[in-house]
Amino acid sequence: MAEAEGESLESWLNKATNPSNRQEDWEYIIGFCDQINKELEGPQIAVRLLAHKIQSPQEWEAVQALTVLEACMKNCGRRFHNEVGKFRFLNELIKVVSPKYLGDRVSEKVKTKVIELLFSWTLALPEEAKIRDAYHMLKRQGIVQSDPPIPMDRTLIPSPPPRPRNPVFDDEEKSKLLAKLLKSKNPDDLQEANKLIKSMVKEDEARIQKVTKRLHTLEEVNNNVKLLHEMLLHYSHEYSSEADKELMKELFDRCENKRRTLFKLASETEDNDNSLGDILQASDNLSRVISSYKTIIEGQIINGEVTTSTMPDSEGNDHCSNQGTLIDLAELDTPCSSSPVLAPAPAPATSGIPILPPPPQTSGPPRSRSSSQAEAPPGPESTSSALSLLDEELLCLGLTDPAPTASRESAGNSQWHLFQNEPSSDLDFFNPRPVSAACCPSDGSLLPPPVSTSSSALPVTAYDKNGFRILFHFAKECPPGRPDVLVVVVSMLNTAPLPVKSIVLQAAVPKSMKVKLQPPSGTELSPFSPIQPPAAITQVMLLANPLKEKVRLRYKLSFALGEQLSTELGEVDQFPPVEQWGNL
Fold first, then answer.
1. DSSP secondary-structure letter at 301?
2. What's this model's pTM, rounded to 2 decimal places?
3. 118-156 burial by CB neighbour count: b if 16+ within 10 A, else e?
4. Where does 207-307 sit in CATH, by number?
5. Fold of 2-140
6. How far is residue 531's CA from residue 526's CA, in Å, rounded to a whole number?
7. Contact (CB, 8 A) for 373 and 389
8. What confidence tens digit (pLDDT) does each residue in 497-513 have?
9. Residue from 294, 233, 221, 305 nearest 264 by CA
């Protein structure tokens, strides 16, 4: 395959599925798999190409494409599984077997192969819930009468989960002490061991009780949210009865009361606890339905925005109320078409980006939360007025959001702050060549000329969801005379079929450091096209670390994917070692 070096994914697939092939050509099939693993956006591009081939009117070409798909599932890993497990691709497979679309024109051999693949993935990849949902939907609609008799695919079966262990008995010190006491022949030691076992059992009972209470709270919250959401969807000011209005008011009050309970649960839960995601999701759903109630029933406008009716279903997937059947599964991957068209968000003022709320006092890994509502940037005179839902949640966790006009002393009391809100005289990034932060140089370069952006340090993925990705690239050199300043080039890429608009990135670092974001090259990214490189935005970030401490950066990202508003919080700590700055 020496002559195949430099082949594109499309050329590999064309050769692997060529209708003139007398048999499956595994040289090109494996070459296609290898190329997917090499390319950064390989899985995203590959599934689009495969979907087209699978729907080919030529049976042999479609069968070969399904063989390639099966090989990719075995050789291309989790990234490829995630792309196949999206309704965007599953819909293309559903079209092949559904009589509403291509089912009447596709041969039985192709349809049978598609159904066999879907069924095998539901067994081998139970974590891909959307594949299971799509297959079960086909069974409910009678397209699949019974599960096909296929052998279990051993190459896709994940390794068995580790045996469950009791967290109480994972305490290494207690376990060693208990083993030592039990080995002793001294009656006092045996009595002490008995006491220790009783105390450990008591701790375990308390843990189980706490978990049970948490599950009960989450179930109650989810039930209240679901019922209130459904009633709001069918609410009519003229035709809804007083009993319905009273019930909605009662549900609203329950949701309000449970809000702080969830905040308390989140603050008490360890960051590595798997239940934290369920708690944060329930909190987001709760905030969303409360906002919907205030907008629909009370006529309030939340943060100057009209709230959408997007809510999760029983499987935890967001979708619109007008979801239909079969191909409308795609709506779970894309925003509602009924959402209002957004106006571009104003560009951040050069006088300073609003300060992010400081992190909780407890240390731990980052927590990331998304919301379907974007926060309008506060005006200079309205900063201390009504808080957004996200800010309100952070305040309930014991955090504060200092005003942009806060004094230097009050800002120093916070663990995290932004460079923009501090006088820049003590940390001039651009000496001896000052550059105005309000505009970009005429040549389009945001970096000072002496700084080289090429380095051996690998980029870090700060955000990667729904086709929108943000990467941090680290410059090889520091600005002249500032070895304590790291230059980071932030790249924003869009591989989604929808445009990304109103992009605003904000950053915060611990008080011993300072950070400054220069104006981005743009605030919008066009939809992805498989025949063109992904659209990209670049933004330079300067990070000062005079005390040479380990860098932790917290970011806040707001954007609109299509017509869906989102706000994301996250943290990045995978920065190059401080001692290597200036020589990466």
1. -
2. 0.33
3. bbbbbebbeebebbbbbbebbeeeebbeeeeeeeebeee
4. 1.20.58.160
5. 1.25.40
6. 13
7. yes
8. 889 999 999 999 888 88
9. 221
